[in-house]
Amino acid sequence: MAVAKITRQGLTSIAILVAILWGCLFAERYLARTSQLETYRALRQIRYLKLKRHVEPATHPVAPPSFVLGPVVG
Fold it and tell me: H or E segment at 31?
């Protein structure tokens, strides 16, 4: 003798809610993995910028050669 019975509507709603729950779990794992990769990229970029900040002396600029072609007619 059954005291309570699960209807088709109840089973459908349970299935939908379970699918939504799994979707949320997969989305959360994806977001956590993506944020971890972005954190590593940002830290690598910061490290690169700190190394790039080292100033290297530049050579003195060289004046362009002056060519004497003669008088300009025109």
Answer: helix 8-52
